[in-house]
Design brief:
- Helices cover about 90% and strands about 0% of the residues.
- The chain is an all-alpha fold.
- It has one domain.
- The chain contains four helices and no strands.
- This is Integral membrane protein.
- It comes from Glutamicibacter halophytocola.
């Protein structure tokens, strides 16, 4: 896993896809699911979805964007 992440940090195209497309889309889907679960009566599980996986995807997107910017500045 560490080897794969190390190689991933060297490709700005992959970081672009992760940071600007995949992670924000996953965060949006998980947040919408959590919101609908709260409205549907499953408050605990909905709040867990809103607070844990959605935030992980948001911070992962920020991580990918920052690493991509740093990589492009070095080149």
């Amino acid at each position: 896993m560490k080897k794969y992440l190390g190689e991933l940090k060297q490709h700005p195209e992959a970081l672009f896809v992760l940071g600007y497309m995949l992670f924000p889309l996953l965060a949006l889907v998980v947040a919408a699911l959590g919101f609908f679960m709260v409205l549907g009566g499953h408050k605990i599980f909905g709040l867990v979805l809103l607070l844990v996986p959605a935030q992980i995807f948001i911070f992962s997107a920020v991580w990918a964007i920052n690493n991509r910017k740093r990589l492009l500045e070095e080149k």
